[in-house]
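TEACHING EXERCISE
Course module: macromolecular assemblies
Task: Read the component lines below, then compare them to the predicted structure of the full complex.
Student: A.B.
Group: 4
Components provided:
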Amino acid sequence: MLHLLNTPQREAVVYLGGPCLVLAGAGSGKTRVITQKIAYLIEKAGMNAKNIAAITFTNKAAREMQERVGALLPKEMLKGLTVSTFHSLGLKMLREEARHLGYKPQFSILDSADAAKIISEQLVTTDKQLIRSSMSQISMLKNDRISPDKALAMAQSEGELQLAKLYRSYQDTLFAYQALDFDDLIRLPVDLFEAHPEVLEKWQNRLRYLLVDEYQDTNTTQYQLVKLLAGVTGLFTAVGDDDQSIYAWRGANVDNLRLLQEDFPKLQVIKLEQNYRSMARILRCANAVIGNNPKLFEKKLWSDLGVGDPIMVIESKTEEEEAAMVLDHLESSRFLSNGKYSNYAILYRGNHQARIIEKQMWGRRIPYVISGGQSFYDKAEIKDVLAYLRLIANEDDDPAFIRSVTTPKRGVGNVTLEKLGSYAATRNVSFFAAVYEEGFIHQVQAAQYEPLRLFCDFINRMQDRAAKEPAGPLLNELLLAIDFETWLYENDEPRPAEAKWKNVQDLVAWITKKGEEDDKSLIDIVQTIALITMLEGRDEEDVDAVKLSTLHASKGLEYPHVFLIGCEENILPHQNSIESNMVEEERRLMYVGITRAQRTLTISYCGKRRRAGEWQITEPSRFLKELPPEDVIISGRLAGDKPKPAMSKEERKAKNAELMARIGK
DNA sequence: TGGTTAGTCGTTTTT
DNA sequence: CGACTAACCA
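Instructor-supplied answer key:
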């Protein structure tokens, strides 16, 4: 197997002398290094799979890694191998150790919508901006491992004090719900390990070798978790690329790359610079753009896959025209090469940009799938069903209670809920518990109380059965009992009920499979489900369709032909990033986009687009000017502009010759 | 209590 | 222009 690797890749795989950092440029085979290293650890170094943990950032990446390792070694040898995201790993640890933290092991996980609701209630506001920024500030505090108490003590200004108070009450609310948010899943294990060395030791013994993927995306807490688990032996391999760090806004800290060298002086640094994905011109563009950023580690990608076609830049007048031209190019290219739709990806900065493309795709009957954006788990009908399951697993989960008791409608309205809520608050119990309390029963009329009681009795019965009965059939029974399908058909706007019901069926199928395969109860499954965007990507692979994706969601993927749309000032780089001096990260985003392309890259922008209903003049992105002119052909037309001539034949010849020389051909 | 409607508001990226 | 909310009627 090792012969399939190039020299630095092999070096990275076999190095077991201590901490190892692999600086892996885009397309340089980092997943291959990680998977081969796992195989090497088991096969050659004689390690037990259950002592190895590979940590990624997305479930998709984890799944892919699992599959690729599965192709290298027989199943028996991989038994107990941990391949998971930081969040799933934290979740696993916390389910086992919850009691050390005063939580019950059946705690719920709150998604950001639930969290936003809590914040909005605490602040008594509906201002989305304010809620958003409060959430992100609390998240930052958590990621820097500052507790509510510490935040209160540290507060320097009125604003900071308010924030700290909000943080405190938010956290108290979470505790009352017996719920954790995403950040807690990382933060609490670190707290736990610091407070209980014996627990840390247990996990150090269990996870003796760590492999961390996308290391440049780790935040302070995640790095501390890695450091704690790696312990004094420092047996880990981190793989990352500072040029692909695009998550600073959610706390990722590129400086962790430098810290690694500081904290582990013996760190072995290995660079992977040969790219196996893109043709030379694409890499030249990528290198040129990223060259405008300051460098942490010197690194230059190269490939021997040939020069390739020039990068095409399409100009158009409006966003509709942009979509039309991009799709024209896409269709004619696909026609000429007789290729598959799935060879094409359209990438953009923000989710909303997909809509215009989507509309035209639909009109032209071009098949497409959208990755990123609203995940399966975020769909209303799925959240409805999961609310029931969450409540069954943890009856203290008030958001789940509220959602499930009101969907489908069962005669419990806002007034009753309000009463229940304030009663629960004064008694300091959950909504669910309050329903059974004498004090509450007398507060409402029998007609209002009846449905509440019926609902809670129903949940109680389900709880008894959920621990023992097969998951799939029980869930089906639940859906039948609440008449969920009928409810969907009665509410088939704006999305058709068939589609929603299909999603629910997919969920049932997934849970049934999980229940049978791993012999897990409904409760077991529900407790891990919050982090799984399960059906994501399921049919993506076998359906022949154009991929629409945000730049963020495209990281780690590759496509023969890539279109990068909306390449304009205030979009890419995004306005907020320009205002907050974050243009370097936007440039890395551009870099990520460019390096997704294998054979051709087409970039587009338009002269004006609608924003909040108003037409706005737009300027081409500054990043366009950073592309090497000799590798670019501009086509299309902008209002007032003549199409620009391509380079002359002679110029191109000379440039090509120079290029060939540069890449050593 | 629940569904309909007429206003209002405003677009980053995600585990 | 379209999604989402707050008042409004059945």
